[in-house]
Amino acid sequence: MSWSSGLIKEILNPNNLIISSELGVVIADKYPKAQHHYLVLPLADIPSIFQLNRSHLPLLEELHLLARNVVEVKGARWTDFQVGFHAEPSMQRLHLHVISTDFVSPTLKTKKHWNSFNTELFVPYEKLFALLEKENCFSRLPKSLRDELLNKPLICNQCEFVGKNLPTLKEHLLQHLQDPERTTSDKMEKQEVDEKAYFRDELKRKLKDKRNFLIETDRAVVIKADFPKSQYHFRVVAKEELRDITQLTEEHLPLLDHMMELANQIIEQQDHLESRDFRIGFKVHTFWNRLNLHVLSDDFYSMAMKRPRHWNSFHTELFMPFQMVHMLLSLQGSIESISEEKYNELRNQRTLTCNQCEFSTDLLLDLKAHLYQHWQRKEGEREQKKKMENIVRLLDEAKLNDDDHSVLKLDDAATGTAQPTPLLKAEPETKGTPTQNFRVQIQHGSGNDNLMYGPPVNMMNQLNPNNPFRNTPPLNINSLNPAPQHRPNYRARNPNQHRMPGQHGPRAPWNGPRFPPNPNWNPQNFPQQGFNMFAPGPSINQQGPPQYPYQPIGAGGYGPTGPPNSVRPKWVQKTQQKNNQNPNNVEQKPNLQNPNQQIPHQQKPPAQHPTQYARSNQQNRPYKNPQNRQNSNQNNNPNPQNPQNPNKQKYKNKKPANPNQGAQASQPTNNAVPKT
Ligand code: AMP
Ligand code: ZN
């Protein structure tokens, strides 16, 4: 065996393995160039980085996971390491270097050693990953560049020091190691400043990189949020050089209106949801260097929701709804920024209260499990609603055969007015009883309303030849709702007339402030059957006697509701529903057996349930525990002669005994809802 196959020989001896998984192993570098120096190798026979292509990306992820795990096993800090490949490796079998950045080691002996880790001769893992993703291969550096890099001066990796020779540099590095206090804080500060400055400009870069635009106009663009905090999360980014809302003046109101228009457009494009499911607003203390309007669905069910501050940035005064910004600008011409103190206080607020009910907790994990429940139920509701709408559409298609326009003209002539009148009114005498306490829908006076809600004809009158419903005896609305004859524009509480299918009704100009949750909504009832996420809770717009005349809902109004409570279908257990009625819909529950399932933003549902969390934690540790090594060596002796399929992602030690177990674990039961 030649010298260059030394690593292959090493990994054949199980005693050399610090940790291992089904796809890779970790050994100590025999000639470490720093305090910690490990090599992660695949079991598959891949000679070097030059044989890699896109198909190896999952394998690389696995190697990277092993790298993290070995650092953890060694009790070291991940941030003290650099992880990557040599652009010009000397040893055979692909190997990922996991090396601490102190570079204090007696076996660091030559300039080549130093420069191979501290110039472009070292290819960080992320860089290689991105390269492969983009170009499908990694090519050799030209020899001239290689020589140039090898001969670069000996620049310290932690400060600006340049060593005259290797011993001087090594002495200097030792000082860094012995006085970590000064140097690491310096280093971190510098790094942090650099990194932040870079990232703060990300939106500016995105504006240049036109590929990301979902919508573009001369003044703004819509892009997907990089770290979506909900299932649907977009940003409307202004093209004008404005840092944040504190730079806005009254003159920017047209720009704001324009941004809201784009927000509505992108919402319109989301078939799945409606405008009332979205939150639209600005972060008061935005990280980004560019004015950007958040448009996000109110599920807040997302992998990227990782810290309480993420939650707080959308659920405290740190988030300013669009209309508030608009109003402040109209009234006082500017918006003040908040003090750093207040910012920190709000950002670090401990109590996290659900945005959809009164559930409160100190633990983000609990909240996430709870949000997952909301999300799951909402999905079920939406499905039900879609079915309802389909039924309604079928019924309405039958009715629409009559000529609405002639009816309109006749009616206008008869009443002597062509003014559109509010069409749906609640009966004053019927208010108060549970089934009649439906939401009053207020119509805009646009011509479309007639198309959406039917002509202003007394359709209760079966004798009226213009009554488009006169020939539909099976659905005799008189029998459903005896209607008063004195209200020519009264619309019965019949779901078929409540909304026209396929239309969303008039959209509120923007998403309003979310009113405080209904105090009568008992969260204890949350997981019970019949729970209806769309059931309107009384809000300041919907409570009390109906108001006349009906005004269009202004800023802050809810969009139109679905059918009233009384006709809503009862909640059907989702599992049944799915099994029985919609076998193709897999996006609603995480399914470990189908890890590639598509859900919005290509996210896999985060591990929300506590037991799942344990699992996901385990997933971060694919290695065999060193304590169990004896055991695992016997059972699982890695056999490089028989390389594993690199696409196989399962680890022996985490495969559930029962194949259904995984799926079950990923499907939280009602017990997962923390009791308040
Ligand atoms: P590279 O230049 O990327 O090919 O690095 C090869 C690495 O393998 C170097 O860091 C060597 O110190 C290390 N090495 C060489 N021989 C052995 C061995 N027998 N066992 C473990 N590590 C080795
Ligand atoms: Zn230094």
Automatic annotation (TrEMBL):
* Compositionally skewed regions (Polar residues) per UniProt: 459-482, 592-601, 609-622, 662-676
- The answer to whether the entry has keyword Calcium is no
Q: Would the keyword DNA repair turn up in this protein's UniProt record?
A: yes
Q: Which UniProt keywords apply?
A: DNA damage, DNA repair, DNA-binding, Hydrolase, Metal-binding, Nucleus, Zinc, Zinc-finger
Q: Single Gene Ontology BP term? A: single strand break repair
Return the InterPro entries for the record. Histidine_triad_CS, HIT-like, HIT-like_sf, Znf-C2HE, Znf_C2H2_type
Region annotation Disordered: residue ranges? Answer: 413-433, 453-676
Q: Where can this protein be found? A: Nucleus
Residue ranges occupied by any HIT domain in the UniProt entry: 4-108
Q: Where is it predominantly found?
A: nucleus
Q: Where is the composition biased (Low complexity)?
A: 521-532, 542-553, 572-591, 624-648
Protein name per UniProt: Aprataxin-like protein isoform X1
Organism expressing this protein natively = Drosophila kikkawai
